[in-house]
Acetyltransferase
Amino acid sequence: MRRTERYPIKGPNSLWQLYNTIGFWRVFLNTLVIVIGRYTPFPSWKNWMYRVFLGMKIGEHTALAFLVLPDILYPERITIGNNSIIGYNATIMTHEYLIDEYRIGEVRIGSNVMIGANATILPGITIGDGAVVAAASLVYRDVPPGSLVGGNPAKVIRERYKDTGHA
């Protein structure tokens, strides 16, 4: 079950009304930092920029690979634990703009988590410690600690070290 806050809107679709929900300059700054961060080759520099300028909570020794795309509108709603890897071109969303509403949700990624290349994490998701998300997966539900999930939509393929939560 995804945990999102729902905000109904009146008039044209919610994305058309984007700057009624969040300030232009906030989005501009977030976009600038994320574009620079996506190409930054040093994980420590990238983590520092994302922590300081975007308010993301990123644990020690966590690595966001080349072209990882954190949410541009609400990156401060992303928390990633220690020693995790987010693979090439993965996307972490904390918002979704629909026709008649928009939704915002926290994304919590535990410690020792590995997320494969091109995976997409939807808003309101928790990925437990020690979990593995296969490449190109669409994570639309919580991922239990220590499990391997994959596919579109992502489903549990195998439970790994269920009692300890370590991969």
